[in-house]
Write a structure and sequence with these properties.
The structure holds two protein chains of two kinds.
Chain A (H helix, E strand, L loop, with lengths): L2 H17 L21 E9 L2 H24 L3 E6 L4 E7 L2 H8 L6 E6 L49 E14 L4
Antiparallel strand pairs in A: 1-5, 2-5, 3-4, 3-5
Chain B lengths: L3 H26 L4 H5 L4 E5 H5 L8 E7 L5 H15 L5 E7 L6 E6 L2 E9 L25 H19 L3 H17 L12 H14 L5 H13 L7 E2 L16 E2 L25
Parallel strand pairs in B: 2-5
Antiparallel strand pairs in B: 1-2, 3-4, 4-5, 6-7
Helix pairs in contact in B: 1-4, 5-7, 6-7, 6-8, 7-8
The chains are: A alpha+beta, B alpha+beta.
């Protein structure tokens, strides 16, 4: 049964009870538990750019391909369900050298200066920080994020950027929840 | 928070810019035709959540520029961005992105902080657009002689108008749709681009429920929505009106939703910038 049908089933039960005055309407609008309860494994796709303008085009392109990735993931023999989160997370980062740019591209949230959810400004105040767990998987070319553990910034280890100007990096993250197939 | 009337001011400004744009093209193409130049005008239509009246404080405005037949899409992309910057208050236009090769070619920008998706189509059968403010795009004959991209651009407004005209009580419909939209967003099953139903698809489903229970209050519509959609015999389409045979051998122009997408079996073909394509599934 598809995900949407599951939600419709749940909505039916809740609204039945609401109409009998047994539950309040707010129960229908309880938030999803995509990041908090639904999955043991998550895959994070990061795309990054050095300018805002370039990022607008690049992230739009990547966003349009997430669905294709999800479809292909579902065909993988080890994966029984792949569900994309419906929005991407836009983040702006500021850092001082290429090593830090690398870390941002590998999913570090240590340099975030601004974060918004794409395409839905109405709810952007909700879940500001997302923590993801991923397990190394055989999906070549994918950037993975080792979330949960806080990465500490060690500025003294890093070579300062030549010009001294902070480097701006823009990223968009898409999260895909995974259910693995039962092991043999 | 922005009040609705502010959006209407922005739209009025876009209408002015559109008229100036059409006049400019008229001057260039037919410099010896003063009557044509004098009466040259375009028209801005809205579609999507703004047209349906279910927009929130952060919603964007989806709008369509319609022009007479001598104005081409190339003209639109050549002149419109510059006119927009010249004619809008200084500094009010930000983050402009012109996407000429999309499924539906588009100019995206922010006008005083409101993000706007502006698409374009000409009407190949009209040399002048009627001055009547009630003029609309309902007539199928207006589609004659247009290419696929132009048809897709017109489709958004036509479908949204259809939906709002086909529900018995628009006020009840809006209220119920707001509830369903909130529900779908909270459950993270709202977004065309990821293969979930988008704004138009959810709107059509709610509209169908409204038709079946014409006297019901919003709360009842929401309740019936779940009961009906849960048991809908997919892939039987959700139709808001009988299929009408237009004069054109084009796609089905009747708004409908044929199936709720499972992942991997999705009827929602990719469309980068707007949600309207979910409606003309063949």
């Amino acid at each position: 049964m598809s995900l949407i049908h599951q939600e419709l089933e749940a909505g039916t039960i809740i609204t039945d009870q609401i109409l009998f005055n047994k539950r309040p309407w707010k129960d229908l609008f309880v938030k999803h538990s995509f990041f908090t309860n639904d999955f043991k494994y998550y895959l994070s796709v990061t795309c990054s750019s050095k300018t805002k303008e370039a990022h607008r085009v690049w992230s739009g392109f990547v966003e349009s391909k997430v669905r294709v990735l999800v479809q292909n993931l579902e065909r993988h023999q080890s994966i029984s369900l792949a569900r994309p989160f419906n929005k991407g997370y836009d983040r702006a980062h500021s850092c001082s050298n290429d090593a830090e740019v690398d870390r941002i591209q590998n999913g570090s949230l240590a340099f975030v200066t601004k974060e918004t959810k794409t395409a839905d400004p109405k709810v952007k105040t909700e879940d500001q920080v997302v923590q993801t767990k991923t397990e190394p998987m055989d999906t070549a070319g994918m950037k993975k994020e080792e979330g949960g553990e806080d990465e500490k910034v060690k500025l003294e280890d890093a070579e300062p950027h030549a010009s001294g100007e902070p480097l701006e990096v823009y990223t968009t993250n898409h999260y895909i929840g995974l259910v693995l197939a039962e092991g043999k | 928070m922005l009040i609705p009337s502010y959006r209407h001011q922005v739209l009025a400004s876009l209408q002015n810019i559109t008229d100036a744009f059409v006049r400019k093209v008229a001057l260039e193409k037919e410099p010896n035709n003063p009557v044509l130049i004098r009466d040259a005008r375009g028209k801005v239509f809205t579609y999507g959540s703004f047209r349906l009246g279910v927009f929130g404080p952060g919603s964007d405005i989806d709008a369509l520029v319609v022009a007479p037949r001598y104005v081409t899409r190339d003209n639109y992309f050549e002149y419109f961005p510059d006119l927009l910057r010249e004619m809008a208050p200084p500094g009010s236009i930000e983050e402009m992105a012109v996407v000429t090769d999309a499924f539906v070619p588009i100019i995206k920008f922010e006008y005083s902080g409101i993000s706007i998706d502006l698409i374009f189509s000409r009407i190949a059968t009209l040399k002048q657009l009627p001055a009547d403010p009630k003029w609309n795009l309902k007539d199928n004959n207006l589609l004659r002689g247009l290419d696929e991209a132009e048809l897709r651009s017109l489709n958004g407004t036509r479908v949204t108008d259809d939906i709002i005209n086909l529900v018995p009580e628009p006020t009840t419909f809006r209220l119920a749709l707001r509830a369903i939209k909130l529900w779908a967003q909270r459950k993270a099953i709202y977004a065309n681009i990821m293969g979930f139903p988008g704004g138009v698809a959810w709107a059509m489903l709610v509209a169908r429920v409204c038709q079946l229970y014409p006297k019901a209050a919003g709360a009842v519509i929401v309740h019936k929505f779940f009961h009906l959609m849960r048991r809908w015999p997919w892939p039987q389409p959700v139709l808001l009106k009988a299929v009408d045979d237009g004069p054109l051998q084009v796609r089905v122009w009747n708004p409908k939703v044929r199936s709720l997408p499972h992942f991997g079996v999705s009827i929602y073909s990719y469309h980068p910038l707007s949600s309207t394509k979910a409606t003309n599934i063949t």
